[in-house]
Amino acid sequence: MRGFRKLTSVAEALQIAMKECSKVELAREIVRTEDALGRVLAEDVVAQHNVPPYDRAAVDGYAIRSEEAFSASQSNPAIFRIVGVAEAGAGRKRIGSGEAVEIYTGAALPDGADAVAMVEECEREGNELRVLRSVPKYGNVSRCGEDIKRGDAVLRKGHVLKAWDIGILLSIRMREVSVSPRLKVAVLSTGSELVEISDPRALDEDSLVDTTRPMIKALLSQSGCDLVDGGIINDDLEEIRDRLSSLAEEAEIVITIGGTSVGGKDLVPEVLDGVQDSRLIFHGIAAKPGKPMGFGVYRGKPLFMLPGYPVSALVGYESVVKPVIASLTGLPIRERQKVKARISRRVPTTPGVRHFLRVALERDGDGFLAKPIALTGSGLLSSLAKADGLVIVGEDREGLEEGEIVEVEILGD
Amino acid sequence: MRGFRKLTSVAEALQIAMKECSKVELAREIVRTEDALGRVLAEDVVAQHNVPPYDRAAVDGYAIRSEEAFSASQSNPAIFRIVGVAEAGAGRKRIGSGEAVEIYTGAALPDGADAVAMVEECEREGNELRVLRSVPKYGNVSRCGEDIKRGDAVLRKGHVLKAWDIGILLSIRMREVSVSPRLKVAVLSTGSELVEISDPRALDEDSLVDTTRPMIKALLSQSGCDLVDGGIINDDLEEIRDRLSSLAEEAEIVITIGGTSVGGKDLVPEVLDGVQDSRLIFHGIAAKPGKPMGFGVYRGKPLFMLPGYPVSALVGYESVVKPVIASLTGLPIRERQKVKARISRRVPTTPGVRHFLRVALERDGDGFLAKPIALTGSGLLSSLAKADGLVIVGEDREGLEEGEIVEVEILGD
Q1: Which end of chain B has fewer CB within 10 Å, C or N?
Q2: Do B89 and A377 touch (CB under 8 A)?
């Protein structure tokens, strides 16, 4: 039985993976604007059209020439002859001197008109209109290009498209938009003992269902990645190498799950030996849980080796894989909500190792009490169902004192 | 030209819609556990299996009978004969008196053994094992059911499934899970003047592209709804009624966009007149922008009538539709991050009306300055691209004073 030669700190592990993954190059992808929600703009968007595309009424009322109502007032109304109606989308009208057009919000201002008298400031009898108040040139008119001018830089490269951005892009008549492609990530479980939940053997009490890979797949889809599912592979060096080689061709990043510990059959770090363009960069991180994580390059592609135990795999994913993916995709990580709480008991930790403590929160006067969840192994997924939050204890600490105030990250998702 | 008879307050509008929509009944849906990320549990989950399913090694070492190493120490080691190796998934071994089995983390404890001596506390020579320290009964063993016991309530009805919950459900061998179905929401734009972005006419400067419906569709998909797209329909009472009738059959909730103002062609509230099981409940809310919003029932289905102008529609969606959907689906609304800021100038508002102010944020010493974005109409989508946040001015105010401290909701999505 072997041991980890050296543990890499979480911060250094992240830095190494970040640097290696910065070589990943993503092309561009053109998508329909209506399908672009949540995607990352691959280039600046410059408006090719004015919004509004023409002068239009900002209120309901009557389109007139403003100079002809210059001195209009209650006692001295300006008189016009109504020659038609302008409604949104109904085509442009025209007025001559002394004429007015009934107009509705959004309709194009008739040629010859330069203002809209509000309906509340007019009197009408048949086709005769009395305007009771003067209105300035372009009064109650939304000017052409007032919202967005042709040539305006509307949205910047790297912007993550929100629901209203889709409206904005359509308003400047963009049918398609250039976005960063989704990152393709391949996921593979290793372990001759594992079965898929869909396998009939999964109902035997003696079988071990693969739970970590489906969890990591769910996390990757939350991170906005496209998945290449490599399934489960036996603990066999050649089988693992074959599968990894085909996954490395298909995906930008490869993740293996399991086989990273230092037990008898833990082969994953070994598979890199002697393979072209492949090397192990670190194996073992100073995290508890999460220690048996590795990272390297396989046939030129970044390879994250996550431990098989779900909570350990989760720590590796959250601390290293997720920030790397966010940096590559440009999609922000949603920060967890944080609260301060008093820790309910003394918790010893190992200096030099980052500890991830699952806690239940209880109301405690005005504040919260954080109760560490008793744990006997990193396999214990139920600790996450029972936990309300996570306390991260830094490498500089030797433990938490009872009653100490800690920051708790709420486990929202 | 008509006016709104009465404006309903935002709070009352929400209350009315909430009450009416509480009649919507959602059935259950069975989905594959691996596809259940983000779904809402329709029933409590009770474990039918133990996790771990059997006693297993929590460390690498040697499985023994603890009583046979009762007084073991450096100077007085207990001696065993190694009779085999136990690895995860390799089937259960058996030991007799004086025997030990080499065992790896996760492997089933052999029959006859009740503890694991850690590899660090043993010496081995060929098949002879010297255990240098006593180990208690079940020492270094993860007991059957220690993580989850058969019969345990693991997750509760209404719980929104996170990535690790998928792992938990699979660990208790659940292939499928009963969840609330997605809410089916139909969306329809009205307006003879509107064209789809895919329509060749969309490139004419005089055409009006439908931007609000794609925005609302994006918002609905963010709210976890299934969409029924009703397209664009002309300003014709009978055409609108026909389309609404078929949408009301297909969907649980119907949303119309446009035609809610009080201009000449604003027909939507009228379509409910004289139709069976249909009534207008309110029309016009005390919001700026967002006033021309309506709500009613069409052939028994809740009908939200949003204004055509995108920013108005967005206010109606956020203030009324979104909370109703969250309440029906059980999916939480992600609260926007909030910051305090000083408002840069006086902003007059109308008492009794809730104002939604878009602001740009600037650093200002230790804090932020919120600069209201100059607006001339509720059509101005670009105000949202320029805005960093939203300030909501309550109905009890007559405006904001220059320099007043306000709460700004950051427009993250």
Answers
A1: N
A2: no
- For A1-52, how does the pLDDT look when each residue is reduced to its tens digit (9 = 90+)? 456 778 999 999 999 999 999 999 888 999 999 999 999 999 999 999 999 8
Residue B317 · residue B310 · CB < 8 Å: no
> Given an 8 Å threshold on Cβ–Cβ distance, is A214 in contact with B34?
yes
Do B175 and A202 make contact, defined as CB atoms within 8 angstroms?
yes
ipTM of the complex: 0.91
Smallest Cβ distance to B385: which of A168, A218, A261?
A168
Please give the model's pTM, rounded to 2 decimal places: 0.92
Residue given tokens 């719980």 in the structure block: B159
Q: What confidence tens digit (pLDDT) does each residue in B10-60 have?
A: 999 999 999 999 999 888 999 999 999 999 999 999 999 999 899 999 888
Mean pLDDT of chain B: 92
Contact B384, B317 (CB under 8 A): no
Same domain, B42 and B165: yes
Report the candidate in A354, A355, A359, A353 with the shortest Cα–Cα distance to residue A341.
A359
User: Does residue A4 sit within a domain?
Assistant: no
Query: Cis bond leading into B52, ω under 30°?
Result: yes
Which residues on A lie below 8 Å from B116 (Cβ)?
none
Q: Is residue A5 part of a domain?
A: no
Separation between Cα atoms, residue A254 and residue A186, nearest integer Å: 5
A49–chain B Cβ distance below 8 A for any pair: yes
Residue-wise pLDDT tens digits, B52-109 = 899 999 888 999 999 999 999 999 999 999 999 987 766 788 999 999 999 988 889 9
Residues with Cβ within 8 Å of B62's Cβ and at least 6 positions away in sequence, in order, are B80, B82, B100, B101, B102, B103, B116, B117, B119, B122, B129, B131
Contact between A384 and B261 using a beta-carbon 8 Å cutoff: no
Is B218 found in the same domain as B170?
A: no
Positive or negative, the CA dihedral A245, A249, A250, A254 is positive
Cα–Cα distance for residue pair B97/A112, rounded to 1 Å: 108
- The owner of tokens 């804090």 is B367
CATH of the domain at A212: 3.40.980.10
* C-alpha separations of A250 from A2, A94, A157, B221 in Å: 33, 62, 27, 29
Amino acid at A347: V
Nearest-angstrom CA–CA distance, B107 and B228: 51
Of A50, A215, A263, the CB nearest to B104: A263
Work out how many domains chain B is built from and give that number. Answer: 4
**Cα distance between the two ends of chain A:** 37
Structural domain including A270 reads: 10-26+182-329
Domain shared by A195 and A274, yes or no? yes
Tokens of B65: 């009978």
Identify the CATH number of the domain in which residue B375 sits: 2.40.340.10
Does residue B378 have a pLDDT over 80?
Answer: no
Same domain for B315 and B361? no
Q: What is the CATH number of the domain that holds B175?
A: 3.90.105.10
Q: How many CB atoms lie within 10 A of CB A28?
A: 10
Q: Which two tokens stand for residue A161?
A: 């498209």
Selection from A183, A182, A165, A224 nearest residue A45 by Cα: A165
